[in-house]
């Protein structure tokens, strides 16, 4: 089998890369190890309105609910309401969503091999196990969109992401305070170094957390379920368990020879929220387009690295610094932080400029107000990259 571009991984980043490679004239093959697209799900499925557009989809039947804002709970229980003027995000069904993205790729002429597991690279040839049989495939350019573990990245000798968080989640009947608002729980007793969440949809919620390495995630999940807010709304029972990793901080290099990494494989995930669909989509479009041209020797694969870093590199760098600064805060600092967010002038700025895909924009707006010193106190190192 000979292809111009071979994409490993049928998640969002793989499907979008494959579609763009085909649209740019490359004979493209998409390989997925599972028997069906979109399973197992390792996601809360909260994506911004902008992310959906970036993926080239409208509001399809994968949209389960619409989200306008968030209630954030400090360790001392104080609530901050972050209100958006319009619908800011959707809660989606990842199985249907991922499938639609792959269908789009197929409609653009991409070939697909399911139940086909990438096992290695050998002299430019890709070795796979396809339905129990070992096969070799040739691709001029190989796109590794194979998620957080990225066998493709390891086979090409590319470095790994800066750090990994582990996440845990389940779905359960839930009566939210407001079905258009997600609930976020911060504090070192619940989710050290990150946060817990309850994301409502259709009388249910995805309840979970991600946290820095330490005690088992399940230990913190039990604590989250005893939080007074969750305990009063959670109706018991647990379905659709998810355990998964979230990469933080892209590796130094995402291209080696004719291999390109994209999505979680390249650590293209927002370090402030753990969301990877938006940034993965932005980079997948570039990966597909560059791979198609590089397969015809019209450019080098290295153009991809330059292009994606020029577009989201700084946002990721600032996000990583915000993530590290917030991770160092004590519960007392976090209480002060929520009290700060609750100041009327800060709430107004959040409503006006809050952007879940680009939090650095809001940070810069706050820095320009008389509240600079307080923000420097909370954000420490992150501040230095902004001014
Ligand atoms: C608990 C949790 C909650 C999250 N919530 C959100 C959220 O609300 N919003 C958001 O934007 N992001 C969220 N994320 C992150 C999001 O799920 C990922 O960023 C996103 O799925 C990355 O897409 P991808 O295409 O790069 O990789 P993946 O979606 O991981 O897809 C990789 C694909 O490659 C396939 N594959 C892997 N290895 C091989 C191989 N050797 N051979 C063939 N195929 C292979 C896999 O089967 C898979 O289909 C969350 C993550 C976790 C863990």
Bound ions, cofactors and other small molecules, one mention each = flavin-adenine dinucleotide
Give the CATH topology of the largest domain: FAD/NAD(P)-binding domain
Supply Rg. 21 Å
The CATH top-level class label of the largest domain = Alpha Beta
Question: DSSP helix count?
Answer: 13
Shape annotation: globular
Q: What does the main sheet amount to?
A: 8 strands, mixed
- The quaternary state of the protein chains shown equals single chain
Secondary-structure arrangement, i.e. CATH architecture of the largest domain: 3-Layer(bba) Sandwich
Name the CATH superfamily classification of the largest domain.
FAD/NAD(P)-binding domain
The level of helicity is 25-40%
- The pLDDT mean sits at 92
The N- and C-terminal alpha carbons lie at a distance of 52 Å
Strand content: 25-35%
Number of domains: 3
* Number of β-strand runs: 18
Structural class: alpha/beta
Runs with pLDDT <50, length 5+? none
Task: Pick out its properties.
single chain, 387 residues, alpha/beta, FAD/NAD(P)-binding domain, D-Amino Acid Oxidase, Chain A, domain 2, 8-stranded mixed sheet, 7-stranded mixed sheet, 18 strands, 36% helix, binds flavin-adenine dinucleotide
Task: Report on this structure.
By secondary structure, this protein is α/β, with parallel strands linked by helices. It folds into three domains: 2-43 and 94-161 and 250-312, 3-Layer(bba) Sandwich (FAD/NAD(P)-binding domain); 66-88 and 163-247, D-Amino Acid Oxidase, Chain A, domain 2 (2-Layer Sandwich); 322-386, no CATH class. The chain is 36% helix and 28% strand. The protein is built from 13 helices and 18 strands. Strands 1, 2, 8, 9, 10, 11, 17 and 18 form an eight-stranded mixed β-sheet that branches. The protein has a seven-stranded mixed β-sheet with strand order 6-5-13-14-15-12-16, sandwiched between helices. It has a three-stranded antiparallel β-sheet with strand order 3-7-4. The longest helix is centred in the C-terminal third of the chain and has 26 residues, at 302-327. The termini are far apart. The mean pLDDT is 92. Residues 8-14, 31-34, 42-47, 117-118, 145-147, 151, 167, 169, 208, 242, 244, 246, 263-265, 269, 274-277, 280 line the site of flavin-adenine dinucleotide.
């Amino acid at each position: 089998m000979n292809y111009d571009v071979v994409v490993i991984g049928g998640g969002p980043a793989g499907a979008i890369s494959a579609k763009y490679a085909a649209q740019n004239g490359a004979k493209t093959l998409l390989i997925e190890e599972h028997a069906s697209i979109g399973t197992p799900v390792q996601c809360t499925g909260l994506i911004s309105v902008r992310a959906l557009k970036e993926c080239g989809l409208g509001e399809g039947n994968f949209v389960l609910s619409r989200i306008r804002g968030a209630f954030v709970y400090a360790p001392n229980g104080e609530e901050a309401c972050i209100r958006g003027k319009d619908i800011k995000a959707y809660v989606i069904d990842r199985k249907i969503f991922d499938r639609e993205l792959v269908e789009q790729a197929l409609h653009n002429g991409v070939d697909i091999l399911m139940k086909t597991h990438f096992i290695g690279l050998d002299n430019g040839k890709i070795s796979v196990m396809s339905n129990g049989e070992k096969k070799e495939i040739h691709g001029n350019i190989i796109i590794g969109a194979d998620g957080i573990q990225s066998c493709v990245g390891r086979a090409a000798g590319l470095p790994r992401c800066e750090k990994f968080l582990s996440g845990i989640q389940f779905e359960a009947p839930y009566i939210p305070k407001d079905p258009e608002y997600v609930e976020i729980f911060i504090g070192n007793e619940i989710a050290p170094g990150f946060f817990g969440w309850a994301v409502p949809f259709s009388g249910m919620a995805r309840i979970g957390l991600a946290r820095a390495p330490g005690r088992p995630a399940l230990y913190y999940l039990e604590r989250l379920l005893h939080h007074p807010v969750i305990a009063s709304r959670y109706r018991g029972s647990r379905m659709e368990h998810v355990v998964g990793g979230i990469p933080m901080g892209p590796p130094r290099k995402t291209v080696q020879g004719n291999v390109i990494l994209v999505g979680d494989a390249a650590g293209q995930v927002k370090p402030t929220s753990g969301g990877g669909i938006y940034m993965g989509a932005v980079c997948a479009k570039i990966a597909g387009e560059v791979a198609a041209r590089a397969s015809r020797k019209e450019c080098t694969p290295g153009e991809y690295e330059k292009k994606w870093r020029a577009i989201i590199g700084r946002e990721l760098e600032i996000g990583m610094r915000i993530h590290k600064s917030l991770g160092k805060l004590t519960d007392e600092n976090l209480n002060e932080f929520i009290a700060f967010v609750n100041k009327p002038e800060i709430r107004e700025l959040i409503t006006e400029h809050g952007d879940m895909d680009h939090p650095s924009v809001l940070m810069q707006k706050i820095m320009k107000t008389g509240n600079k010193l307080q923000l420097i106190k909370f954000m420490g190192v992150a501040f230095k990259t902004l001014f």
